[in-house]
Amino acid sequence: MCDVKKFNEIYNVIAKLQPEDTLQLVLEAETEEEKNFYEMVGDFLLQTKQKKVVEGNLF
Questions:
Q1: pLDDT for res 48
Q2: Among 3, 48, 2, 4, which Cα is nearest to 22's?
């Protein structure tokens, strides 16, 4: 059984990352798998922001 509270806290930290933060994580990743993970995180955060813009007719 996983520690849901721990992962919820991790999610909250990740959700606050800025694009330059995810770029730094990608550039400093030690493995290709880690790099791919941070790229996916960055893509997710960008898509989330894009969705809010579209939903709010802010474009």
A1: 95
A2: 48
Rounded-to-5 percentages of helix, strand, coil across the chain = 75, 0, 25
Q: Are 30 and 24 in contact (CB under 8 A)?
A: no
Could you tell me the pTM of the whole model? 0.84
**Element containing residue 11 per DSSP (H, E):** helix 4-15
Long-range pairs of 8-17 with CB within 8 A, sequence gap ≥ 24: 14/41, 14/45, 15/45, 17/41, 17/42, 17/45
pLDDT for 22 beyond 70: yes
CB atoms within 10 A of CB 22: 20
